[in-house]
Amino acid sequence: MGKNKKMEGGGCGGSPDEEPPRDPGVAQHHSFNMDDLEGHRAHSIYVGVHVPGNYRRRSRHHRHRHHHHHKTSKDGSDNRPVTPPSQRVQFILGEDDDDDGTHDSHPLFSEMETLTEMEGGELEWKETARWVKFEEDVEEGGERWSKPHVATLSLHSLFELRSFLLNGTVILDMDATSLEQIADLLLDNMINQGQLTFEGREKFRDALLRKHKHLYEKQKHNKENGNTSMSRLPLIRSLAEIGRNHSSSKNIGSGFFKALSFSGGNNASATSNPDGTMEQSPSSGSITCNHSASNLDGPEHKGNTHFMRKIPAGAEASNILVGEVPFLEKPATAFVRLSQSANLGDLTEVPVPTRFLYIILGPTGGLPRYHEIGRAMATLLSDEVFHDVAYKAKNRSHLLAAVDEFLDAVTVLPPGEWDPAIRIEPPAAIPSQEPRKNKKPEAAEVIDEEEEEQKMREEAGLTRSGRLFGGFINDIKRKAPWFLSDFKDGFSIQSIASIIFIYFACLTPIITFGGLLGEATENRIAALESLVAGLLCGVVYGMFSGQPLTVLGSTGPVLVFETILFDFCKTMSWSYLSFRLWIGLWAGFILIILVAVDASALVCFITRFTEENFA
């Protein structure tokens, strides 16, 4: 026990009538005056020594005075403000470390393993989930990994995790380099704190030192034996076999420890083979993280080198071990942070040194509950803020403050309004967590709706520039950076459907109204002229306008206008085509004037009613 620099535990020690531990995050502040201090000096009481005289009277009087001064309101409640969890976390992260960098944060790879009973009745730690940044679960049947997804947790599991951190064993900066040393120090501490009885020590140790099995080992074994075994397998398995495998995968751990007899002693980390020999867990051959990288490639610590490419350089591991055992009457939990990260043999899937361990073992029948609590711990360790606090925490209250801050930041989804079976895809861009770390109290900003609307108009180019063609020049500056990309993006396979649609959307009305115009204008403007006009206007508009996909062509109002115009020219004996040319020139001249004076700024005052009438 002397090897631990910082060690905390609590919860189960003492008599049953002992007051339960209080939440360190909500501290009560007592006020004292000079009379109280003098009273404490004058009436010192020594535990275990009988004090004669008027001890009871003085003690009663002292308690009365203390109670009187503690009240801060009429109802006797303490009205002192409680520091919010976010501010406590910012204070913890803002503290300067006085050590040699042992508490510096590293990227974390988290792995959760479940104590599972194998076919021969032996117990193994079986990998069930892992986290780099997002969660990956072993799919039903235990054959492959799921896609990374955002972890969805139940609020109850987070509250239970907080309760276990408050009342369970917490050991910070444990000085150990092997899983056996960790188990011995941890069990001694749990027995001292009353979480575990001395009779259950060896059984608990035996469970901790069981062999660890990872999914990549099974996949590798299947690949090596694929040529021989797959040829003997039938092409179609029976439905009974499929149902049997499916039920066994869903009921993992339902029959834990049925045929188990805990041996304890020095054989705690060994498993028996059919021939009677004992297979030693590779966890016994642990090496420290100070060894060279060449040692990590040895036969006893090969690891999943293929998945190692996805883990950032300098990463450390956190291992979460959950399971159910018959010798416990209530769950026993422990949170351990090593003073120096160490490679613990086959504990981790990849050759990454372990820094954190979270262990939760409980009585049979509660494995789903323990599994969710383990997922909650792994998700917390993958959270950037809790991850940093876990490295810098100096006591249990720091971890509790980080959990409270996480609870303040989470979003709760009501039941019945979403399907928990649907996995949430990771976001394209992960939002920064710096505001949670360095949140500064800011004065409430008064939002002026008129100023916000004015900014939106300026960004859209709907404000007067105050100079001739100022808006036109600003449009060119805004459009220039994306001018070429707008056309390059069109040369994509995904754009073929849109191109075909736009082509027919422009061609069809031109031909239709072109034929009607030919009848109305005595073939002065017919389908051929409409096609040429649509070609020229469409190309020019597409090259220089801000909306290359705008549909151009004749419409019903244009047909009515041309019919009226032709009848008017026929009545006045004017040349229809000459008059039509002058109309186009005047329309272009008026548009140039409107552009010069930034008349487009008036578009913001056009309502949807007006827009739909002219659309």
From TrEMBL:
Keywords: Cell membrane, Ion transport, Membrane, Transmembrane, Transmembrane helix, Transport. One of its GO terms (cellular component) is basolateral plasma membrane. GO terms for molecular function: monoatomic anion transmembrane transporter activity; sodium:bicarbonate symporter activity; solute:inorganic anion antiporter activity. It is a multi-pass membrane protein. Coiled coil: none annotated. Residues 467-615 form the Bicarbonate transporter-like transmembrane domain. This is Sodium bicarbonate cotransporter.
